[in-house]
Every structure is written in C-alpha cells, then in structure tokens.
Amino acid sequence: MDLGIAGRTALVCGASKGLGYGCAEALVREGVNVVIVARGAEALDAAAKQLVAVAGPSGPFVKHVAADITTEAGRAAVFALGHDFDIVVTNAGGPPPGDFRNWDREAWIKAVDANMLTPIELIKATVDGMAKRGFGRIVNITSSSVKSPIDILGLSNGARSGLTGFVAGVARTSVAAQGVTINNLLPGSFETDRLKGTMAGAAQKSGQDFDTVWEARKKNIPAKRFGNPAEFGAICAFLCSMQAGYMTGQNVLADGGAYPGTY
C-alpha cells in the first residue's frame, strides 16, 4: 500500500534506538524526510547512518540533532532547522520504576515534564502550521499502562494519562477539519532496552531471577512473544498516512492481545 506521504517531512523523537527508531525507519521506507533527535550523540549518529542506508542515494533526507527534547534548549536546537514538519512523533524515555512511597515532588515534576508537557510543547509548536498547510499527523508514543496501569510504573501511569486527556480534547478542535490528526500509539511489551529495565525492576521486587520474570511475562501475552520495533514503526507509519485521515483522538493499542478489556 502506498501511504501517500512520500516527500513529507517528519520529526521523530527518541529515535536513536527502540520504538522511536522503528518509527523513523518505517517513515523513511515510505519516502518521508526525517529529522531524528535523541540525547546520546553516538547512538544517534549510528541510527542516522542506518537510516541513510535505508533511504538510499536517491531517497529522502535524514538529519539528526543530539539534544534533550524535554528541555527548552533541546527543542530550540530542533526547531532551528525549521518548524514546518508535516509529521511529528513524540517520544521520550519513561520514568524509572519503583515504589510511589519513594517518589518526591521532583521525581513527579520530571516525569510530567518529559511525558506530558514535552509532547504538548511539540504539538503547540507545530500544529497551527500543519493546519494552515492542510495536512498534519501527530503521533504520541505513550504506553499500554494508560489502559492497564502497571504498579511499579506509577510515574509513567500518571504522566502519560495526563497527556491522554489533553490529546482527547485538542484532537477534536478546529484542526481536525484542517487535515490534522493527533493520535496516541500505546506499546505493550516490545523487546527494547526499556522493557529489559522494567523487567529487571520487577525481578528485583519479586526476588526472582531476570530470565524467570522475562519468560513469565512472555507467556502471559496471547501472542506468546514480545513485539519488535519494526512492526511498531509500521503501525506508526499507517497513522501518519493519507489513509488514516479519518482517525483522530484515538488510543491505538499494540500489545499482542495482553489487555483483556472489551473497550
């Protein structure tokens, strides 16, 4: 299927590896120019080289900015390249797992800043330009914990739920009639460094070894496996497509069937 977005330009955050990289690669394969941003310069350089190889000599451009997108300075560094992004994929590493009794105000502010306020700032900086041009796609990578909270990820549960409520409102404003969609993409268990870190925390809390917790988590997923970043990226690319123009304000869950609810 031709997604109809070749030649568009996308900003993809947290794209040096994992789910962010999977989204960037899927967009490049569709002929989308990408600007990728992440904090780690070395990993980001490597990711950019991989994407250039995917694009090929006559393909879309790939630019990268080593910056912390959760800071004003980081966002300024990205927008120094321009504000006219057709596609924005927001993504920031989730806050650490733990016991809520141990989180102080600073921990909560940091979580909300990264996983709620940063996506809002990126939407605010780009959505009106998209609306004026008559096309825009914003995809926020959040978490399946928005629908099914994970006890040791309370910081993430809270911050990402706040973003979900905000998007539910703003996606249904006048921008919807101007060709701009805003959706959330909720990953379940994908084989990433983030999942490994969460499982390590769960293993420590339960007193079990890592491999036992890892395999038990996998067995509890109806698909009997963890997802991979490439298939996650493909879903993201579809949400950015012309064909998805009638989908907005939605929470799209990709979790191998792990969430047991009907709605």
TrEMBL record:
<comment type="similarity">
    <text>Belongs to the short-chain dehydrogenases/reductases (SDR) family.</text>
</comment>
<dbReference type="InterPro" id="IPR036291">
    <property type="entry name" value="NAD(P)-bd_dom_sf"/>
</dbReference>
<dbReference type="Pfam" id="PF13561">
    <property type="entry name" value="adh_short_C2"/>
</dbReference>
<dbReference type="InterPro" id="IPR002347">
    <property type="entry name" value="SDR_fam"/>
</dbReference>
<protein>
    <submittedName>
        <fullName>3-oxoacyl-ACP reductase</fullName>
    </submittedName>
</protein>
<dbReference type="InterPro" id="IPR050259">
    <property type="entry name" value="SDR"/>
</dbReference>
